[in-house]
Amino acid sequence: MNAQGSRRVLAEFAYEVPPVERGYTGQTLYVNLSDNTIAARPVTDEMKEKFTGGRGFGLWLLWHGVRDNTKWNDPENEIVISSGPCGGTTQYPGSGKSLVVSISPLTDIPIDSNVGGHFGPLLKFAGWDALELQGKAERDVIVIVDGQNGRITVEEAPDVPVDTHLIGHWLIEQMAEKEEDRYFMSVVSSGQGAEHTRIGCLNFSFYDRRRKAPRFKQAGRGGIGTVLRDKRVKAIVVKSPPVRGDSNHPADPERIARAGMRLHKEIHDYDDQQNRMRRRGTSYLVGIMNDYDLLPVHNFRYGSHPDAVKIDGDVWQSRFSQGLPDGCWYGCTMACSHAVDGYTVRTGPYKGQKVIVDGPEYETIAGVGSNCGIFDPDDILEINFYCDTYGLDTISFGTLTAFVMECYEAGVLDKEKTGGLELRFGNAGAAIEMLHQMARGEGFGRIAGQGIRRMKEHFVREFGADPQFLQDIGMEAKGLEYSEYVSKESLAQQGGYGLTNKGPQHDEAWLIFMDMVSNLLPTFEDKAEALHYFPMFRTWFGLCGFCKLPWNDIVPPDNAYTDEPAKIPEHVRNYVELFSGVTGREITAEDLITMSERVYNFQRVFNIRLGKGLREHDAVPYRSQGPVTVEEYRSRAERYDKQLRELLGLDPEKMTTEEKVAALRKHREAQYQKLIDAVYERRGWTRNGVPTLETLKRLGIDYPEVVAVVQKHL
Amino acid sequence: MIRINNRDEMEWEEGLTVSVLLERMRFSFPHIIVTIDGKVVPRDEYETHLIPDGANVRVIHLIAGG
Questions:
Q1: How much of chain A exceeds pLDDT 70, in percent?
Q2: Strands ordered across the beta sheet of B56-61
C-alpha cells in the first residue's frame, strides 16, 4: 500500500507551534469532522484556575459542545483528549497520562477514561493543551497533528486498515521520515469491534525503542472507541518536536527534580520487596485478591478459585519479557507496562501471526480469566490481543461474558439462542468466537456487544427471562460494566462503585482493605469521609496528567510511622511540589482536594443536565452487595450465618437458606441506603444526590448555566 | 486470646510471631503495617517478634487496586 496514494487531504490548517509555558500551551485544538472546520481556541485563566486540565478541560469543553439532549451518536458529541499541566514531565514516574472524555454509548452521560501511552504529552508539545473532536466524517478519515511542521490535516484514508496492531504499525512506518520521528509520534486508534458494539476502546500508542515497534495502552472504559468509529475516524496521529526534560518549561525545575529523585530511589530500593511492579506489573494482584476472597469468579459469585494459581503474578512474570524498560512514558522507573513477545495468534483473521500482546493487566486477567472461569494463560492472551486490536474494552468484555455465561448455565440462554455457542463458564473457545462475532457484527456477539444493560432488556423481551434475576446478577451500574473486584463484604466499596460519576470503575475509590480487612471505617461517617477524600484525591491525577500507580504501589519505608499511612503522606507532598514546580501556582494538600471537587461536582451536574445523576441512578445490582442465590450463600455459609447472628440477632439454625438469603439482603440493601445518605451529606449534595447551591458557590462553579440545572431539582 | 483489627479474635499460643499470625490470617498483601498495642513492628522483625497474650494487634492494609 502506498501511503500518500491512499490518503487525500480534506482539510488543512497551518499554525505556529507555541512554546509551552509552565505546563500549558494556552490553546486547544478544535476539529469538526462534519464541515472540516479546524480552529485554535484559547485556554482562559478561568479554565486553568477552575478546571486545571486533563479531565477538567475535557468536561468543560464537552459541556459547551453538546445540548441537553445530545446522545452519544449525535454529531455534536465530542471526544476530548487532554493530558494536563504536569503531563509530559520526565523526572517523576507516571507523568504521561492522557484523559479522554465523551458522552458514552453505554451510559448516555460523560465518561472519563485515563490512559498511558505518549499521545497526550506529545499533543501538548505539538502545541495543544487539548484536542476537541466534533462532528462526523462522511467517509473514513485520519486526523494528523503535525507539531514538527505546524500543520493539521484531516485526510481521507480508505485503504488504511482499522485494527490497531495493523494501523498503529502502518501509520508510524509511513509517516516517520527518520528513526527519531518514531519516538515522538503517537497514534490513537480503535478497531472493527468498536464499529458493531458499544464497548469500543481507544488504543494509545508509544514507540518501544528496544522492541522497535509501537505498543499500546487502552482508554478502555465507556465505549469511546465506539464514538471514534461512529465519527468515521480511523486514527488520530500526533508528531511532536523532540521531548526534552524541560519541554513543559516548568516554573521551578529543581523542585520537580528533588521529588523525582526521592521516588526513583524508593522504587529502586524497595520495589523488589514490595509489589515487584517492575517485574510483574499489576498482575501481582491476582494472587492477592484470591487470598482475600476478592477475585471475581464465575460472574462475581465467588471471590477465589483453586485454579487462580495458574494465572497469578508469578505465571505472568515468567511470560513477560524481563529486563526491558517497560514504561509507558519517558522517565517512569516503575515501568509496569509489560508485554508478552512473540505470541502466536491461534484463531481468527490473524491466526498464525506472531504479535506483541500488551499486558495483560490485572483487570484483564480477572475479567476475561477467573470471572469467566478461564484459567489458561494462552486463552487470556488470545482474548487480550483481539480485544485490543479490535478496539474492545477488556473489562466490559470480561464482565459481560461472565454475565452471559451465568445466563447460559441458568437456562436463560441455550445453544439455539446463542447461535450454537455453548457459553458455559470455562469455555474459552466459545468466548473467543463470540469476540470474533463482535468484530464482524454478527450473530450473538452483536447482541452481547451492546453491553449488559441492553442484553437484560433483550433477554426479557425476546426470551421471557425473569427481569429481577437479570437485574440481580447483571454487574452493571449506570450502564457500565463493573471492574474486577468482589465488593460484597465491603459496604464502602459498594459505594466506591455505585456512588461514582461515570459508573462502576475502581479508579475513584478502592476501599476494600481499609473497610473489610483493616476495619478502619467502622461508622457511616468514616465511610463517607473516605468516599469523599479518595475519589477527590484520585480525580486530581486525571486533572494533571499523572498515573495513580506510583502513588501507592510503592511506599516509603517510614510510611508506617505517619499519621495517615493509607494516604501515603510523603507522596502527597511530592504531588504538591510537582504541581507548584511545574505551574508556579502554590498549592497545599487541601487545595488539591478542592481542585478535584470543582471538577467532580461539575461532572455530577453534567450528568443531571443529561437526565441522569440522581439518587435513583446510583443504584447497584444486588450481586455487588451480597449472595443472590442459595448456592452462593451456601458457599460462604459460615460467614453469612455469623452475620445473621451477630448483626441481626437471628438464629440461622431455624431458617431455610432462602429465608437467610432474604434476611441478609434486606439488611444489606438498607445499609447501602444509609451509606448514600451519609456520602451525599459529606459531599454537599441533597438527599437526591444534587449538589447544593452552597456547594457550587463554595467551589466557585456557580455559573448561571450550572445553577439552572440544579435549581430544577432543589 | 488476641484481638485483630478491633474486630476478630484468635486463640493465643506460646511463641506466636507476627509472621505466623499473617500466615494464619492469609494476609499476603505486601503493603501492610503491623502494630501491637499501638506500637509499630518493623518489617524485619516479623519473623521473631512475639505477640503477647491479650494483645491488640492491628494489621493495616494500604490501598490496592489498579
A1: 99
A2: B8-10, B2-4, B56-61, B32-36, B39-40
Contact between residue A336 and residue A549 where contact means Cβ atoms under 8 Å apart? yes
* A275 neighbourhood in chain B, CB within 8 Å: 30-31
Residue A308 has pLDDT above 50, yes or no: yes
* Residue A163 near residue A391 (C-beta atoms within 8 A): yes
B3: chain A residues, CB-CB within 8 Å: none
Task: Give strand pairing partners of A236.
Answer: A143, A188
Nearest CA in chain B to A547: B66
Task: Tell me: pLDDT of A4 over 80.
Answer: no
Of B27, B40, B65, the CB nearest to A560: B40
Q: What interface predicted TM-score (ipTM) does this complex get? A: 0.94
Q: What's the DSSP call for residue A614?
A: S
Give CA–CA dist A271/A1, Å, rounded.
Answer: 46
The pLDDT value given to residue A140: 96
Distance between first and last Cα of chain B: 36
Task: Determine the residue of chain A that is closest to B28 in CA distance.
Answer: A288
A contact test, residue of B7, B23, B26, B31 with most A CBs within 10 A: B31
Residue in chain B lying closest to A276 (CA): B30
User: Rounded to an integer, what distance in angstroms lies between the CA atom of residue A142 and that of residue A153?
Assistant: 8
Q: Which among A162, A220, A218 has a CA at the least distance from the CA of A191?
A: A162
| B23: nearest CA partner in chain A | A291
Q: Which residues are bridge partners to A11 per DSSP?
A: A154
Contact assessment for residue A582 and residue A576, using Cβ atoms and an 8 Å cutoff: no
**What are the chain A neighbours of B59 within 8 Å (beta carbons)?**
517-518
Least Cα distance to A276 among A507, A553, A550 occurs for A553
- pLDDT at residue A566 is higher than 60: yes
For the segment A169-184, the average pLDDT, to the nearest whole number, is 94
For A588-607, what is each residue's pLDDT tens digit? Answer: 999 999 999 999 999 999 99
Q: Say yes or no: B23 contacts chain A, CB-CB below 8 A.
A: no
Task: Give the per-residue pLDDT at B63.
Answer: 78
Q: Does A361 touch chain B (CB under 8 A)?
A: yes
How far is it, in rounded angstroms, from Cα A297 to Cα A370? 5
Q: Work out the mean pLDDT of chain A and round it to a whole number.
A: 97
- Strand pairing partners for A59? none
Q: Compute the mean pLDDT over every residue in chain B, rounded to the nearest whole number.
A: 93
* A chain contacts of residue B27, beta-carbon cutoff 8 Å: 291, 517
Least Cα distance to B19 among B56, B54, B57 occurs for B57
Residues of B in contact with A272 (CB under 8 A): none
CA distance A683 to chain B (A): 21
Q: Determine the distance in angstroms separating the CA of B45 from the nearest CA of chain A, rounded to an integer.
A: 14
- Verify whether the Cβ–Cβ distance B40 to A565 is below 8 Å: no
Per-residue pLDDT of A641-694, as tens digits, reads: 999 999 999 999 999 999 999 999 999 999 999 999 999 999 999 999 999 999
Q: What is the largest CA-CA distance in chain A?
A: 79
A506/B65 CB distance under 8 A: yes
Contact A115, A204 (CB under 8 A): yes
- Residues from chain A contacting residue B7 (CB–CB below 8 Å): 519
d(CA A71, CA A354) in angstroms, rounded, equals 40
Nine-digit cell string for A218: 487502552
* pLDDT tens readout for residues A432-449: 999 999 999 999 999 999
From B5, B31, B65, residue closest to A485, measured CB to CB: B65
> CB of A523 within 8 Å of any CB in chain B?
no
Contact (Cβ atoms closer than 8 angstroms) between residue A110 and residue A103: yes
